[in-house]
Description:
The chain is an alpha+beta fold. Helix content is 26%, strand content 10%. The chain has two helices and two strands. A hairpin with a 2-residue loop joins strand 1 and strand 2.
Amino acid sequence: MTDTLIAVFKDGAFRPESPVDLPEGTRVVLSIKNASSVAAPEVKSVEERRRIRREVVERMMRNPLPPDAPRFKRSDMNDRD
Length: 81
């Protein structure tokens, strides 16, 4: 099984930012990638930007949020342990 999750290194341990469905004591292999070093690719072509924007909008239109999706408040989205 391969999964990607975001974690914070705190008090000598990696703490996932979202729940992980693993039994206690499960051994895992971590690949470390510092989130602050990740950068979006530089797109200089106006046509390429238009194409990317069009694809993103099309994907969003194909996958709308369900009408009964929970509404988050700003405080919910910034809640950190």
